[in-house]
Amino acid sequence: MSDKTIQDINEKIADGSVAVVTAEEMPGIVAELGAEGAAREVDIVTTGTFGAMCSSGAFLNLGHSDPPIKMQKVWFNDVEAYTGLAAIDAYMGATQLSETRGMEYGGAHVIEDLVAGKSVDIHATAYGTDCYPRKLLDTTVTIDDINQATMFNPRNGYQKYNVATNCSDRTLYTYMGTLLPDCGNATYSAAGVLSPMYNDPTYQTIGMGSRIFLCGAQGYVTGQGTQHDPTNNFATMMVQGDLKQMDKKYVRGATFHGYGTSLYVGIGIPIPILNADIAQATAITDADITTNVLDYGVARRSRPVLRQVNYEELKSGMIDINGKEVTTSPMSSFHDARAIAEELKDWIKRGEFYPTLPVENLPNSGVVFKPMKQMGEQPTVADVMAKRVTTIRQGLTVEDAAKVIMEGNFNHLPVVSDEDKLAGIITAWDIAKAVAKSKQDKVDDIMTREVVTADASEPIDTAARRLEQHNISAMPVVNKHSKVVGIITSDDISKLVGRR
Amino acid sequence: MKFILHATTEITSKPLIAEVVLETGILLNIDRADVKPSGGEVVIDVHQDGYDTVTAAFKKRGATITPLEQPVIKDEDECVNCGACISVCPTGVISFKDDWTVQMEVDKCVQCGACVTMCPHGALKIDK
Does domain B2-67 have CATH number 3.30.70.260? Predict the structure, then answer.
C-alpha cells in the first residue's frame, strides 16, 4: 500500500469521509489491525494536554492615543507588561505578578480576563518625544477595543516532565504545587497517552507551520520551544494563536502558593497518519512513557533522581518511593486534555480544521539544553563561614556559657555532646532570658535542640534562604557526623554580597 | 457527623472533652485541634446516634457548636479537574471519578485547608 499524503487526508476532510480517532483510542486499533492496517483505516489521531505552562504570554497592540504616547512602562490591572518595543506594543508575560495583589493575580490572569471579555485597566508612562509627546495614559479596555491580541508562548507542551516529591523535613511551595515533607506526596504533569509530542516522538509531522488546537482557537507551532531537548524526550514547542478567537475554558490563570502565577494552556495537535510508522508511534500507552521522580528538597539545578516511573503508575494515584506508598496527583487536567482531543476530532470531522505539514520539522537531534554559563566560582558556605568555632559541652552551666560568649564577643554558641556531636545552640538572648527568670541551670535546659544547620559545600544562596525562612541570624555548619566544622552568620553573607 | 467545638479560654483549661466522653459514654474522634491563647477550635467526629447528646453536653459546659455540613466548597466554574488537591489531603477526601473529574467525600473533611492552598485556580473554599 502506498503511503497517504496530507492532500489525500484533506480531501477526505472536505468530502466528509475522514477517519479521526483520539490518541487514547489508537492503541486498541493498532493492537487489532496492526500498524499497516491502522494506517489504512485511520487518517488523523488527535492529542491533547491542558496544564500550567509558565513560558506563555501575549502581544497586545493598543492602538494610538491622541496625543500619541510611546509607552516606556505599561501595566494591565497593575501587572507590568514588557514594552521595549514600538510605541503601543506590549508583551504580557504569564508569570509577571500584580504590583498590588502579589501572587494572587498575575499576567496569566490578565490574559484570562481579556479572553473572558472583561475590562482591564491600563496605566502607561513615557518620557515624551517630539513625535510622541504624551507622558501619562490611563484607560480601560476589553479585548475588542485593542488591535492584535496574539498569544505567543516561547515554551509549551513539554513532551514529558519530571515527577516532584520532597525528601526534606519542611513543606515546599513550588511550581509543582505544595510538596509535603518526608515524601508526603508526589505531583506530576503532562497527559501521558494523550501527550501531543509523545505520539509523534520523532516529530515527523510537528514543526514550524503545524496547525494546532490552541486554547480553543486554531493556532500554529512556530518552531522548537526554548529548552527543546529531544535527546532526553523533553521536547518543547513555540506556539502562536489569536487570543480573540480563544475559549476562556482553555486559557486559565493559576496561582501556585508561594511560587507565583502561571497560565494553564490547552493544546491539541492532530497527527496525520501518513504511514505505518506514524501509526505505530501513536499506539503508545501510559505504561510506555517513563519519567524520573526528583527530590525537590534539594534546591540545586541537578536534583537527585529517586526512581523511574511510568504514567500508568502515576495515574493509579500511588507510587512507591524508597519503600513508602506515596499519593500522587497531577497538576495538569487529564479530563480537559481528553476534552481537547475530542473537540479537535469534532472540528476535523465537521470540516472546520485542516491539518498542515510543517515547513520545517522540530529538530529531533543535535539540540542540547545547556546549563547557564556563570562568571566566576559560585561561593559556598565553606568560603564565608568562620572555621574557628567556640563550642560548649553539654552539662556545663549557663554561667559558663555566659563567660564564653562574653570572652569571645559573639552571639551564638553551639552546644556539643561528649562525642563532639552538635546537641543544641545557645544565644546571648537565651542567657539573658535565663538570668532574668533566675533560671540559671545547665546549658541543656535552655538550649534550642532543633538546630537549623548548613552544609559546607552548599551555595551561599540556599543557606541565606534558610536563615531568612527560620528568621535566625546564624547556623552551625556540620559535617555528616554532626560535628561542628564552622558557623555562618547573616553578617558573613552580607559582607560577601557587599563585595560582589 | 462532624462539628466544630469552639471553646473560650476559661473552659480550654478544663478536661472538657474527657468530661463529655465520661458523662455520655459516647466515643469521639478528634480530627483536628487548634488551641490558641484566645481559645480553642476542635473538629470532632461522632456517630450520628450520639450527635445530639454529645453536642448538648458540650453546650451545657459553655462551648459553642457549629455543625460541619459542607466543610469544603468547590467552585465548579473555576475547577479544571486537574486533581492537584488530591495528594495534599490528609484524610483522602478527594479522588478522581472514572471520567477524571474530581469528586469529594466531604464527610471525611477536617477543614485543614491544605487543598485550598494547593488549588492553582482558587476553586476551593473552607466554609466557616
Answer: yes
Question: What ipTM is given for this predicted complex?
Answer: 0.84
Contact B80 A50 (CB under 8 A): yes
- Closest residue, chain B, to A261 (C-alpha): B120
**Residues 135-164 in A contacting B (C-alpha not used; CB under 8 Å):** none
Yes or no, beta carbons of A327 and B87 under 8 Å apart: yes
Whether B8 has its CB under 8 Å from any CB of chain A: the answer is no
For chain A, what is the domain count? 3
Spatial distance between the Cα atoms of A484 and A419, rounded to a whole number of angstroms:
11
Chain A hits for B123, CB-CB cut-off 8 Å, are: none
Q: How do the domains of chain B map onto residue ranges? A: 2-67, 72-126
What sign results for the dihedral spanned by CA atoms A78, A84, A90, A91?
A: negative
Q: What angle do CA A483, A486, A491 make, to 5 degrees?
A: 145
CB contacts, 8 Å: A177 with chain B = 84, 88, 118, 120
Q: Any idea which residue has 497560565 for its cell? A: A263
Find the closest chain A residue to B99 by CA distance.
A335
CATH code for the part of the protein at B72-126:
3.30.70.20
Judge whether A131 counts as a catalytic residue.
yes
Domain match, A207 and A329 both: yes
Cis peptide before A67 (omega within 30 of 0): yes
Task: Determine the Cα–Cα distance for residues A449 and A426; give it in Å rounded to an integer.
Answer: 9
pLDDT tens digits, chain B, 128 residues: what are they? 888 888 877 766 778 888 899 999 999 988 888 877 777 888 888 888 888 999 899 888 888 888 887 789 999 999 999 999 999 999 999 999 999 999 999 888 888 999 999 999 999 998 76
Domain end: A106, A127, A146, which one? A146
